[in-house]
Write the structure tokens for this entry.
Amino acid sequence: MQKDLRLQKADIQTQVTPADGGCTITVGADKFVRALCLSVDDDNSRWSNNYIDLLPGVTRSIFLSTTLSADEVKRNLTLQSLNDLHE
């Protein structure tokens, strides 16, 4: 069950790169991350997938369709996960 998971604090790395029609956000972590939610404060932006699990040492790339620049996305990117509840 979710409540019984023993999740550790993870060091999550992000990289934001410009792409045609938006940005690609690449995320990775040193530990398992459960239900990572990526968000930006922009109602017009659309994610290809903004809730993911991360395995240690494995990166995932997510596309964000947006008019925001890559720098604006970097400044406004918020990450939350179930791991945050177990600190």
